[in-house]
Amino acid sequence: MKALAPGKVILSGEHAVVYGKPALVMAVDRFAEATISSNSDSRVHFELVDFDENSSLTIQAMRELKGRLMRNYQMFLNGELSIREVIKKPFHLFEFLFITFIDGVQLKLDRGVDIQLKSNIPVGSGMGSSAATLLSVLKGLTEYFKLELQPDEFFNYGLEAEKLQHGKPSGVDPYVSLHGGFVRFQNKKAENLNMPELPFYLVNTGSPTSTTGECVSHVADHFGDSKIWDDFEVVTNEMQKALIKSDLNEVKRWIRENNSLLATIGVVPMHIQHFIQDIEKNGGAAKIAGAGSVRGSNAGMVTVFSDHAPTAITNKFGFELLNVHGEAHGARVV
Ligand code: PMV
């Protein structure tokens, strides 16, 4: 049994979406993949192929782990732990999901399960790789156990797990990975939009030093009550109009505005600002796509709108140009 779930790119509205403002988000053709099979030893094995990590727990051990993780999360909410300290091992996220799902649908396992996970979505780079992996597991498990879940249930299981990693996420990552397409997302609801026709380029600037959870916490501490989120909303609304009209000049104008607001809230490292300035000097526009970083010099994905591929500038900075396209379909069994 194999299931896939796509990653995503935020074209406008990251961070603002945490404060109830809209975001424009596109599922892209990079996927997380979960392969599920049975085993005879009554334990649940996770294999994270890309991390070269394995874990094997009994159901009882997973329930205990879930208790510990929920206590950690409560301590994060109380300000006693940083979000980085809530989950210590990558597979804990999936073990939490597994036991929450199994107990939620009141399943009794009569044999063990092997779950192998891999992905071609760059990890921790603003493309929603953990949400896509969570959704691929959920789709795979639902099919494997022949259950039927409503979209809201998939979303909620994904979001509950994502909270342990991202603190107080907006829900945009699991939503888009579940449904695919291009959406305007706000307050956990989304409106479907036509896929933009304008081409854009994605540049991988390398894994950010800080996690999404840390960025969101840092921004909350400094801008939680700020009026700046209204400015983000204006930019997103204007960007939506420009994308509908396929007006590249207008799109570039609002990408530049968006980038300047993101720099103001402190999630665009100086090195990345220099890269973006070079793109702008060449007539293009660029911004981070995702949480960015509040430390170090890398910021994950940067979206570039320009008349031609920004190959020379990307090479000059030693970054990687990715070839991705919009993906109409969300998580599914293959
Ligand atoms: O997971 P990332 O890096 O794509 O960031 C998600 C977008 C944020 O707005 C920064 C956080 C959120 O929960 O919406």
What is the topological layout?
Blueprint: E1 2-12, E2 23-39, E3 44-48, E4 53-57, H1 59-77, H2 90-104, E5 112-119, H3 129-144, H4 151-166, H5 172-179, E6 182-186, E7 189-193, E8 201-204, H6 212-223, H7 228-244, H8 248-264, H9 270-281, E9 285-288, E10 301-305, H10 311-316, E11 320-322, E12 332-333
Parallel strand pairs: 3-5
Antiparallel strand pairs: 1-2, 1-12, 2-5, 2-6, 3-4, 6-7, 8-10, 8-11, 9-10
Helix pairs in contact: 1-2, 2-4, 3-4, 3-5, 4-5, 7-8
(3R)-3-hydroxy-3-methyl-5-(phosphonooxy)pentanoic acid is lined by residues 10, 14-15, 17-18, 126, 128, 166, 169-170, 172-173, 212, 216, 290-291.
C-alpha Rg, in Å? 20 Å
Report the major sheet. Answer: 8 strands, mixed
* Poorly predicted parts: none
User: From the helix content, strand content and strand pairing, which structural class follows?
Assistant: alpha+beta
- Our measurement of the CA-to-CA distance between the termini, rounded to an integer number of angstroms, reads 8 Å
H/I helix tally? 10
How many runs of DSSP E, i.e. beta strands? 12
